[in-house]
Amino acid sequence: LEQIRFENEVEIDFEIEEELIEEEYMIPPLLIQPIIENSFKHGLFHKATNRKLSIHLKREGLYLYCCIQDNGVGRKDKGAQPKIKRSSGLSTTKERLAILQESTIKAKHPHNNLKITDLKNSDGTPVGTKVELWIPFT
User: Fold this and answer.
1) Residue 99, φ and ψ in degrees, nearest 5
2) Which of these, 93, 16, 7, 94, lies nearest to 44 by C-alpha position?
3) Is the pLDDT of residue 82 over 50?
4) Cα radius of gyration rounded to whole Å, the chain
């Protein structure tokens, strides 16, 4: 739907490890979707041209590793902004990952199953956002 909204002006690279396709692994519903939606809504929407989004999935030990990266405008420094209502998508994703982690692995993940990296070029200008998720297998 976002591709339609952006009139197909977003280059999307979707890479899935062959093993995941062959074995019919299942991802819990609406776990990755809020992250992708944030890339479109907060990063790529504010960029005029050359919009790119990559979604990579691979098996990593006991986890499905998912990396979602965009070349949008990056996240803004929240310290100086007035407090506004935010979407609960990211916090819900964090909570769901914590529940999955506890029920399957029964030990904490080094990044609490989710890591957000603000991408910057050599002079510190934001050049996108990278979100990594480690989804425990059941």
Assistant:
1) -65, -45
2) 7
3) no
4) 16
